[in-house]
Design a protein that fits this description.
Strand order of the largest sheet: 2-1-3-4
GO molecular function: 4 iron, 4 sulfur cluster binding; metal ion binding; quinolinate synthetase A activity
Catalytic activity: iminosuccinate + dihydroxyacetone phosphate = quinolinate + phosphate + 2 H2O + H(+)
CATH architecture of the largest domain: 3-Layer(aba) Sandwich
Radius of gyration: 19 Å
Function: Catalyzes the condensation of iminoaspartate with dihydroxyacetone phosphate to form quinolinate.
Order of helices and strands: HEHEHEHEHHEHEHEHEHEHEHEHEHH
Number of domains: 3
CATH class of the largest domain: Alpha Beta
Strand content: 5-15%
Bound molecules: 1,3-dihydroxyacetonephosphate, iron/sulfur cluster
GO biological process, one term: 'de novo' NAD+ biosynthetic process from L-aspartate
Shape: globular
Number of strands: 12
Low-confidence stretches: none
Cofactor: [4Fe-4S] cluster
Mean pLDDT: 95
CATH topology of the largest domain: Rossmann fold
């Protein structure tokens, strides 16, 4: 970790570089609070994955620095092929993306040609290129409802929990790829029940990548932005939050007098894999942002094959138009 002096120097240098290079910082709610604060201070954005995509597409800067995970950088590049898209690290993956290899996914689609292919944004450019629609958790429910009303049967990938939640809510015919998020998959219902008993007046906020028995206990289910909104709108003073703990920065900033508690990730207090913090989101740091801006080097720049990018842009544009 940086000393306070080093942090101050790094932040000051990043601010200079953003101006000098005509760049803007686009950060996810799960990144380090210092990165979120910097994005806000410098006219960038802190957002959920849908808003990140829209902001990156519409902002006039020549370069985008995307602090998040790889699919977020790739989405930005697909939507704005003429901008340079840099990331603090290209090693920031996502278990949903990794769990859905494009060749296996194409086989799955080929076996079910009668189904409309809807994929979550947490996928590679190649998987998106095979899809009819891309969705994020903030608008997936509405889109599937819309497709179901037209009588369409859905092939869904990759998150089984989000897909299962949408199928239960909409009643749509959905065939699910069996992927999961390593962070949300760890929340434990029994321990959450015990925690709720200790805080009977708390509201439970749940990201829909969580297992069914966690979603069943929720007072609000939604994307990161929607959960932040729920924390402002619900009258409770205390919230138990089942998503990555990076989100606490924004929740606490907007509601300084409310109390936010992490939902439990292991029923018996034993070690868990991710403990409510995405290991890949955690790879984003101030020094890496500085380096990305300073060098613009190949270890930071996102490239998407232009032909693949053109194909992937179609369902992404549909997503943004539907969500508008
Ligand atoms: P949001 O679209 O809700 O920000 O989710 C992205 C994500 O990766 C959640 O784990
Ligand atoms: Fe992927 Fe889960 Fe990390 Fe989100 S929290 S980026 S879904 S691994």
């Amino acid at each position: 970790p940086l000393t306070p002096e080093e942090k101050q120097e790094t932040v000051a240098r990043i601010k200079e570089l953003l101006k000098e290079k005509d760049a803007v910082l686009v950060a996810h709610y799960y990144t380090d609070p210092d990165i979120q604060a910097l994005a806000e201070e410098t006219g960038g954005c802190v957002a959920d994955s849908l808003e990140m995509a829209r902001f990156g597409r519409d902002h006039p800067a020549k370069k985008l620095i995307v602090a998040g995970v790889r699919f977020m950088g790739e989405t930005a590049k697909i939507l704005t092929p003429n901008k340079q898209v840099l990331m603090p690290t290209l090693d920031a993956e996502c278990s949903l993306d990794l769990g859905c290899p494009p060749d296996k996914f194409a086989e799955f689609c080929d076996q079910h040609p009668d189904r409309t292919v809807v994929v979550y944004a947490n996928t590679s450019a190649a998987v998106k290129a095979r899809a009819d629609w891309v969705v994020t958790s903030s608008m997936a429910l509405e889109l599937v409802d819309h497709l179901d009303a037209k009588g369409e049967k859905i092939l869904w990938a990759p998150d089984k929990h989000l897909g299962g939640y949408i199928a239960r809510e909409t009643g749509a015919d959905m065939l699910l790829w069996q992927g999961a998020c390593v962070v949300h998959d760890e929340f434990k219902a029994k321990a959450l029940n015990d925690m709720k008993a200790l805080h009977p007046d708390a509201a439970i906020l749940v990201h829909p990548e969580s297992p069914e028995n966690i979603v069943a206990m929720a007072d609000a289910v939604g994307s990161t932005s929607q959960l932040i909104k729920a924390s402002q709108e619900l009258p409770n003073d205390t919230f138990i939050v089942a998503t990555d703990k990076g989100i606490f920065y924004k929740m606490q900033q907007l509601q300084p007098n409310k109390t936010f508690i992490e939902a439990p990730t292991a029923g018996n207090g034993a070690t868990c894999r991710s403990c409510a913090h995405c290991p890949w989101m955690a790879m984003n740091g101030l020094k890496a942002i500085e380096q990305a801006l300073e060098t613009g080097g190949k270890e930071h720049e996102i490239h998407v094959d232009p032909e693949l990018g053109k194909k992937a842009m179609v369902p992404l544009d549909r997503m943004l138009a539907f969500a508008a």
